[in-house]
Design goal:
heterodimer; A: alpha+beta; Alpha-Beta Plaits; two-stranded antiparallel ribbon; 4 helices; B: 400 residues; alpha/beta; Rossmann fold; seven-stranded mixed beta sheet; 12 helices; globular
């Protein structure tokens, strides 16, 4: 069966092209097939951001500014909010997180999407001296 | 039912029907000649006669956008506009119908600029023709009131869920004060019923996205679902109008007719000119002439089958279009011509472009049109130009 045969016919839609986020109640967190959580947009990306925890001060600027909720925060042992990880399934590589990162050198930098993270960390620049 | 008799113009009739419908949100930007609808409604809000929200926005584009937001959030919503405001709304009119939101729009028809003109013609109604709204035409203030109440009930029916525009002629209906009957508040509200939201955005238990993008593999299906709802609405409109007749004693049909049974020359038109044409028919009938009138009440969806019932036996049909088609025959003419072809009818067809920017159309003008049509009937073929003008200054202007 081709993919075309799996698509719905006109009479099967809700009126108004509405889409739903969850199957059942939202707190059960069973995502509807239409929910963007279910769909990777990784191939929209040319460059990807890489995080270097050696320089990160957990200011959370990247979490605030990311337009696609792709910076996933975490909590440390003391209950403090920290940088968790990057959601590479939904990050579109816009680079805003890198732009707003205040550290020197930056704790987030853009690298070619195919470059392994370990290799990116080896290529990390030195601290930039102020002139 | 016992009804109150009162003197209202078309605008007040619309405002009062909106008041009785207990609307949740009215978002509007006033424009002549529909301004009094919004003004009256804001007075009801200020006086505490209604408890809904009145949102004064910065443009008609914003007005319809706020209506779309409020309707998708799950409220009963209405607004009013005219002409340039209607034109500015047009992008959002397509959004409202595509999202299947049962908004009611009072469109007080007025000419579109340039040149700027505040008086009535149908160029704004024709502009919104393909926007996916149900369009009804009210020919006097009584009809404005009645069709407004019916519009909410039609729009909100689950098998329809489409926005409805109630059109009335700028000034000729909107500012003409006439005696009319209206229902008691509780009876009017009971007729419309409580608003039943469908997939409202403000339901945290069932989050929903409105206005999603659909590319090639989805768009066609959604549009055809909309198309299907449009055709579904014929049955619902018929049912609602029948219920309203039961309640009020006033009957409305998809197309209204006058003296058509044995008519040899028929005029087909929309809007307030129907009343004048009725008087012209009376005058000519008194002279023994077999003339008749068909007034189209439902502009979209277009009642092809209803209209066909009256056009099979007549000799000449003259269609009046109150908007400059600018390069072809008028939009109403085209609908009528299609019905003739679909049914294999072969009366002579004539088209008049009339009444632009509020230009008068009197009984004498309509008599002249009927007499001109009679010449075609007698000849058994079209001996007049296809597209003609009436009450236009300057050298005679016609096309084809």
């Amino acid at each position: 069966m081709t993919e075309e045969h799996l698509l719905k016919g006109w009479e099967e839609f809700e009126p108004g092209a509405t889409l739903f986020s969850f199957e059942g109640k939202p707190d059960q967190e069973v995502h509807h097939e239409n929910n963007s959580v279910q769909h990777s947009v990784a191939d929209w990306r040319v460059d990807k951001p890489v995080h270097n925890k050696e320089f990160c001060i957990d200011c959370q600027f990247c979490w605030v500014y990311c337009p696609d909720t792709s910076i996933i925060p975490d909590v440390d042992d003391k209950g403090k909010g920290i940088f968790g990880h990057i959601d590479y399934k939904h990050c579109k590589g816009c680079g805003i997180c890198v732009d707003v990162c205040p550290t020197n050198p930056k704790s987030l930098l853009m690298f070619a999407d195919h470059l392994p993270v370990e290799e990116a960390l080896r290529q990390w620049p030195e601290k930039e001296e102020k002139k | 039912m016992e009804q109150n008799r009162i003197v209202w113009d078309g605008n007040m009739a619309a405002s009062q029907a909106m008041r009785q419908a207990k609307i949740d949100v009215v978002a509007a930007y006033p424009i002549t000649p529909s301004t009094p609808i919004v003004q009256n409604y804001s007075q009801f809000v200020a006086d505490g006669d209604v408890d809904g929200e009145f949102v004064m926005v910065e443009s008609e584009h914003s007005a319809m956008s706020a209506c779309v937001g409020a309707a998708s959030a799950g409220g009963r919503v209405a607004t009013a506009t005219s002409s340039q405001g209607y034109a500015l709304m047009i992008e959002v009119l397509y959004q409202a119908s595509g999202m299947r939101l049962p908004i009611v729009l009072n469109a007080v028809n007025r000419a579109l600029a340039a040149p700027l003109n505040i008086h009535g013609d149908h160029s704004d109604m024709y502009l919104g023709r393909d926007a996916g709204w149900i369009n009804m035409v009210a020919n006097n203030p009584q009809e404005v009131y009645d069709l407004n109440l019916c519009a909410f009930k039609i729009a909100e029916d689950y098998s329809v869920r489409l926005p409805v525009a109630v059109n009335q002629d700028g000034f000729l209906v909107s500012h003409t004060t006439e005696a009319l009957n209206y229902l008691p508040d509780d009876e009017a509200y009971k007729f419309i019923g409580d608003y039943k939201p469908h997939n409202p955005m403000l339901d945290p238990e069932k989050p929903v996205t409105y206005g999603a993008q659909t590319e090639g593999e989805w768009h066609y299906e959604h549009k055809m679902r909309h198309e299907h709802a449009m055709y579904n609405s014929f049955g619902v409109i018929e049912k609602v109008l029948a219920e309203y007749k039961e309640l009020s004693g006033r009957e409305y049909k998809f197309v209204e007719t006058y003296q058509v049974d044995d008519a040899e020359e028929i005029i087909i038109c929309m809007g307030s000119v129907a009343g004048t044409t009725q008087l012209a028919v009376d005058k000519l009938r008194a002279e023994g002439k077999k003339v008749g009138l068909v007034s189209v009440r439902l502009w979209r969806p277009f009642p092809k089958e209803e209209l066909a019932k009256y056009l099979g036996k007549t000799k000449t049909i003259t269609v009046l279009d109150r908007s400059a088609p600018l390069g072809s025959t008028g939009a109403l003419y085209n609908e009528v011509a299609a019905v003739m072809v679909d049914n294999g009818y072969n009366a002579v067809l004539l088209n008049y472009v009339y009444g632009l920017g509020g230009r008068d159309m009197t009984i004498d003008h309509l008599t002249e049109i009927f007499n001109s049509a009679k010449e075609c009937s007698d000849a058994g073929k079209r001996v007049k130009p296809l597209i003609q003008t009436i009450n236009l200054r300057g050298k005679e202007l016609s096309f084809y």
